[in-house]
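FAQ
Q: What does a multi-component entry look like?
A: The components come first, one per line:
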Amino acid sequence: MMADSGSNEEVAVIGNTDITSTETESNIINTMVERGTALLRKMEINVAEAEKRTGKNTVNMQETYTVYLIETRPAETVPGGGAPAASDTLWRRYSEFELLRTFLLVTYPYIIIPPLPEKRAEFQWHKLAADNLDPDFVERRRVGLENFLLRVASHPVLSNDKIYFLFLTEEKGWREAVLETGFQDKVDSRLKSLSAMFRVKNPDKRFTAMKQYSDELNTVISQLLRVRARVADRLYGVYKVHGNYGRVFSEWSAIEKEMGDGLQSAGHHMDTYAAQIDDILEEEEHYADQLKEYLFYTDAIRSVCKKHELIQYELEMAAQELFSKKQQREELATGTVRVFSLKGMTSKLFGTESQEQRESRLAALEQSIQEGEETLKEKNTECKEFVQMAWEDIERFKEQKDKDLREALISYAIMQISTCKKGIQVWSNAKDCFNKM
Amino acid sequence: MFSINLEMQEVGLTNGTPVETSSPASTSSLFNRLQLEDDLEADVRDTYADSTEMRDLFVTVDDPKKHVSTMETYITYRVSTKTSRVEFDLPEYCVRRRYQDFDWLRIKLEDSQPTHLIPPLPEKFVMKGVVDRFSEEFVETRMKALDKFLKRVADHPVLSFNPHLNAFLTVKDLNKRQGLALLSKVGESVKHVAGGYKLRARPAEFCAMGEYLDTFNQKLGTIDRIAQRILKEQSEYLTELREYGGVYSSWVGSEEELRRPLEGVAGCVTTSCGALEDLGDNMSLDFLPVLREYVLYLESIKNVLRKRDQSQAEYEGRLEAAILRKQEDRTPMPLEVEKCQDKVECFNADLKADWERWQSNKRHDFKQLLTGMADRNINSYEKSQAAWESLITLLQDKQTEDKTSETN
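Then the predicted structure of the entire assembly, as tokens:
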């Protein structure tokens, strides 16, 4: 009996834990979406592979495109997670990533939205294929897309986005869900207002500085990438020309007696040297991608700054409108015309209006002034909130940028050291051969 | 040692006598010479093992000086000699010579020692119009080549005893008139022989030499082209790399936290540029001239080979004529034919010895040249590696520093 009850209890306990664990798990997902502690702590995200597909596009034309496999699984560190949870996988096209990003851009105008990897290879040195379906390019883009997803997932605000979550977890119906949010209307109105020429009277100096910084960063990184591509081209040449030594040493060794063996094997080392450059530059491409991410980030910064300008402009417009209404009220009340106006002219030409008319006009004006005050208040709050949220994200971004670029520079230095070591190794080997001659 | 004595004897014969008799014609001396051949070869093989012990004549060409007169502008070089040989009155000499004096010496050597391989002089004009003859770089390169030439002559067991060398090293003012007269004479005789007979059969070893020279010449040409191309690629790379470093420097201005890493990277790129520039300078100053010297050397060897063929042709021609005559009137082989035969034998022996010596020198020189190339590349990589490594240390120190300050 004792033993039985004991075992029963145990079973119960086990059953209990099981329930709690599933509960916690579903809770986790809920909290994740609702309260949004960093998504990454709860979920592993990766873009596992890329695949080439052929299909018909909207205008019924045959096209080849690449799809990327997104793999998500609950993180193993989740307490009480039990057996490793099965991973969820789904395929997405680059264009779907683009749609997701546009959605985020419109929905979170105060956030510097992480950029996507380049659509077409830019800043290439000549040996790299510019073909979009080139395996190396696809692979680098896979890494870039994964990086994008991880950036969003680790963002304090973006990681809570429902659409983003669906992007990761719901293969079907996602596009419809995005379109249902009606974000496209916002895009249109935004574009319209952005295209209108506007000048802000009292720009926020911090945002002006940020905008200037993003311009500088854009200039310097694109220059860096351009020069780097040329440097890579030249370095490629230097290494590859050394490969000719490999051939000529080997041919020369055929007519030599004592020197022959040394020359022959030194020639092999020269071949090795020439071959090294392919790996070196392939590795360096990763560094270029890191820089490119920040080059594209500059657009995201600019878009936040522009949005701020727009809001500031709307605020200023509201204030001005209110001011002119107040002025009208004053004119109406005192009967003085400060500025030459058509109204003033008509009143002069057709005599003054009746007292009643004046009263009702005044009342209407009063009403619209009150509305104006409201709008101004709203705009003021909107602007303040925007500035606060945007600046918070800018600060976060700055920190992230300093950390990332610092690490990129360090890893670049490590890469250079490895290049030097490889060079020293192969020349030392060659030297041993020369010494045997 | 015996070989040196023999050569001295030969030089004694040559002294003041016309070129035609300069090579020993007597059968006895020839016999000795052939006897010695094996020993000589052994000596040559070990030239670099104990060369300093054997050497008793040291020459250096240095200290170029520019001379400007109303007539011409030219460069002279200091030629210093240290020796324990009895042929020299003093143990040390120091004279100034210009390029045409070296040229005179070489012609003299070629005339008086036609069976020997005379080291090449640098070309009189290197890329006409492109190179400034009085530029520091040109003078330096030429000086090194002249030094090499004179050292090779001074190290040669036969040539180093040539009285013209003695005069070149010791006499204040060279009397070059005599030399010029001799030159025209030799020119005639060479022409005369060249127009003569066709060679019956070249001995296999000289055929092999000719083939070797052709292939080696081709390979040298390729190596020279590769080396020049590498220099060009490297200098273009350097130009781009400099600009690349500059971009990092210009970035520093827009950053706060990233100043140090960016400045660091810019610094490392500059260091790498410096290392690369040194590499290029060294290669163009030390590597290319050696290739150049060997291209010219090959010409000299081909020349001697040609002369050898001519002397064989002459011998064969005369022999044929003599045999014909002998069949008719049974007269003994004329002395003339025997002389010719001696001359051919002498040519063959000298050329073989010089060939062995040259091969050994070549092996040593290219070993040194290529090892040097490897060393320079290693050195260049090491410099830039050190720079990058110190940057990493700096940045990682900074990081831990920051972390500790954060926790504090």
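Q: Is there any commentary attached?
A: Sometimes. For this entry: Chain A has ten helices and three strands.
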